[in-house]
Amino acid sequence: MRISASLGPIAAALATAAAGWSGYAWWQAAHDDGVARAVVREDALQAGRSAIAGLTTLDYRQAAAGYQHWLDVSGGALHDELAQDRQGSLDRVAQAKTVTVGKVTDAAVTEVDPGAGTAKLITSVELAVTPEGQEAVTKRSRFQADLRRTPDGWRVTALGQVPAGEAP
Known about the structure:
By secondary structure, the chain is of the alpha+beta class. It has 5 helices and 5 strands, in the order ααβαααββββ. 17% of the residues are buried.
């Protein structure tokens, strides 16, 4: 009986030490820069995928609403450029009578700066282009985008097509 009575304080000390270590490990993981960076990277990736799909989609029958969506997901210089040429773009879309639907098939964040709230993204996009009265033509393109975090979420501030390289 003496042996089991003397194990009680030892077991309590071990349990306290284990609880203390678990608490410290949890606190350390919660304050790890790598975890915070991964959360920002994933958030930018999801927002960028959605925005690029939207920026590569436009239906001439609903061009004003589609173009407004472009303005809503863009920021910085890209937003300014789109806003400046809004009417000209809408006129060209009306004349072309084309429906284009972009689908992001793959994407990756190539750079992220959580402190600055910026990220760079590369994407592969499948574009279904349907001129009025014709069959859809599928094209594949690659895009590079710059993103900036705003109080309203991530916005695409630059978007450019990446030329396809020649096969080796």
